[in-house]
Amino acid sequence: MKNFLVSLVIIALFISLSDISFAGKVSSTAAKPMQTKMETLVGKIININTAKNEITIKEKNGEVDFFKVDSKEISSLKRNEWVKVTL
Fold first, then answer.
1. 79 near 46, Cβ under 8 Å?
2. Both ends of the chain: CA-CA distance in Å?
3. N or C terminus of the chain with fewer C-beta within 10 Å?
4. pLDDT for 27-49, tens place per residue?
5. pTM over the 0.85 mark
6. What is the spatial distance between Cα 31 and Cα 27, in angstroms, rounded to a whole number?
């Protein structure tokens, strides 16, 4: 009977230690911040739509992109102006 009780205590100790180590792994993984990658593109403004607050930019490689712009800033932009956009 004494051996049975000692075995139960040892099994309970191993189970509790494994639960603690598992919980520690979950919390350390969840604490990592999400990594973000910033992208920058350079292009020429080919169109300005003040009604939609939108500009169209053509990159050096020929790709055309559309961007929303703050209504206060869109008035300072000019067609055929080179701009740098950070996403």
1. yes
2. 70
3. N
4. 555 555 666 778 888 999 999 99
5. no
6. 6
